Amino acid sequence: MTAEALQTLKDGYAFDGETLELGVALDGEEPSKDTPISIPLAMLNRHGLVAGATGTGKTVTLQVLAEQLSKAGVPVFASDIKGDLSGVGAAGVESDKLRKRLDAAGQDWAPRGNPTEFYTLGDSGLGTPLRATVTSFGPILLSKVLELNDTQESVLSLVFHYADQAGLALLDLSDLKAVLTFLTSAEGKEDLEGIGGASKATVGVILRKISELEAQGGDVFFGEPEFDTADLLRVDDNGAGIISVLELQKLSQSPALFSTFLMWLLADLFQDLPEVGDADKPSLVFFFDEAHLLFADASKAFLQSVTQTVRLIRSKGVGIFFVTQTPKDVPDDVLAQLGSRIQHQLRAHTPNDAKALKATVQTFPKSDYDLEELLTSLGTGEAVVTVMDPDGAPTPVAPTRMRAPESKMGPMSEDEIRSAVAASPQHEKYGTVIDNESAREILAKRLEGGSEAHAEEQRSASADSAREPAGGSTSSDTIDFPEEKGAAEKKSGKKEDENMFSQVVKSSAFKQFTRTAAREIARGIFGTSRRRR
Where are the beta strands (DSSP E) in 339-490? Predict the structure, then answer.
């Protein structure tokens, strides 16, 4: 690299204000100690992408960013699907290989652990359980997760409205199934008619979709105590941001459950956090490792929600970084919202790999580098970097030797994680399942009471029949009323009215009603409801 090119990088990455150190520029194959590559802390809420083939150092880069954010007083949330991010909570260990790398890059290094909370979805792992209630999700978000069509979503919205008005708390999936089953039963027929009615086929589809989500582990995620997302915004007594690590090793084959959690978490934060605009540092930074699992087989509605969330949550001071193998793993509409790029080595062993490589090169700003050659020749722990500067413009493309983390590279032991979780006040707060009375229990009591009342009516009717004279009643007070005029016409039209349901749910009046009903229980554009306090 020429002296002029190095000076261009120095100028391009010379920022006023606090920064996070990414590493130093590569001059050929050697690191240039005098050419630091960094990212402005204030621009972390403009989102970013960390990409690269397996084993090229993506997770370590995530770790470097997380520990520096924590040191700067910014809380971090990171999903950990492979299980090798937990080492961020323990001090690193120096080795001859590490010391050689540190000396070559001129990095000051001291082993340091970070304040870390370990979480898991439901009871699927070692961490503190994260749960949410069905009510807090709301019908709109849950419909997107279940991939319901417009008519099915409208029916689910009415069911949520009915449950809200009837005081039927929807805490877990069994509560929602109980309400749906009740409304299509003989006992609930009148209630169903009171909210507009729905075909049993539509309800059957919704019930089947819920069963599929349960099979992916959704039954252990929904319930109480519900996680308060404000707990992700904490700092420790020394002012360091707490790193929240979500363990997902056992859920890598359950992307629906993962996406369910993601959407609820971001929606809840979006509704609760105030507008901050362009602050000196973000309120929280998310890292979603193995992001391709997030978008795999995702519905169009889900992708639209993710895109909208990424676009809008920036103003709440929340930054989102996706970590995956290639940029093509992230939908174009989402990729367009990501201001910073850290691209580790890509491999081109197959035609598909070569195609992905060309597509990746096209997403970078213009430079004098042969990026196809550069991206395939990077070593482990090296990357091509471009970030958004404070003026909103991309910085020059910089081949970079990435910084080494000061925390442990590799996972903590299970015993260490269990010990950390047991000592955490978060585990005391969320560790024990709470089984409050909810829709399932209330409806069971109602049905039991109805059965007893019906049996009493039958006994009374039998007693009255036994006292009645033979030949029927001869009381002068008994009058046979003729059938009301027009009743036959009403009966003939009843079936036609019921068949009009599918037309009604598509009408503008019905859609306005469902929007009004949703507003009664929802907090915002994602349809999430108020948290139970």
Answer: 340-344, 382-386, 398-402
Query: What would the two tokens of residue 496 be?
Result: 């036609």
Amino acid at 89: G
Give the end-to-end CA distance of the chain in Å, rounded to a whole number. Answer: 60
Dist CA 52 CA 39 (whole Å): 19
Q: Which long-range contacts (CB under 8 A, 24 or more apart) does 251-256 make?
A: 251/81, 251/121, 251/124, 251/217, 252/81, 252/290, 252/293, 254/216, 254/217, 255/293, 255/294, 255/296, 255/297, 255/298, 256/145, 256/212, 256/213, 256/216, 256/218
User: Which residues, 6+ apart, have CB-to-CB distance to 413 below 8 Å?
Assistant: none
Question: For residue 68, which of 117, 114, 119 has the smallest C-alpha distance?
Answer: 114
Q: What is the C-alpha separation between 509 and 102, in angstroms, rounded?
A: 67
Residues 6+ apart with CB under 8 A from 334: 295, 303, 306, 307, 310, 322
**Per-residue pLDDT tens listing for the chain (533 residues):** 788 889 999 999 999 999 999 999 999 889 999 999 999 999 999 999 999 998 899 999 999 999 999 999 999 999 888 888 999 999 999 999 999 999 999 999 999 999 999 999 877 788 999 998 999 888 877 887 788 888 888 889 889 988 988 889 999 999 999 999 988 888 888 888 777 767 878 888 999 999 888 887 777 788 899 999 999 999 999 999 999 999 877 665 666 677 778 778 888 888 888 998 788 999 999 998 878 877 876 667 678 878 888 899 999 999 999 999 888 889 999 999 999 999 999 988 888 888 888 888 988 888 888 999 999 999 999 999 999 999 999 999 999 999 999 999 999 999 999 999 999 999 999 998 888 888 888 888 876 665 454 445 555 655 555 555 544 444 433 333 334 444 444 444 544 544 544 454 444 444 434 433 433 443 454 556 655 44
What beta strand segments (E) does 336-409 contain? 340-344, 382-386, 398-402
> Nearest CA to 50 among 252, 259, 326?
326
| DSSP result, 262-286 | HHHHHHHHHHHSPP--S-SS-SEEE
Q: Does residue 365 have a cis bond before it (omega within 30 degrees)?
A: no
**Considering the entire predicted model, what is its pTM?**
0.81
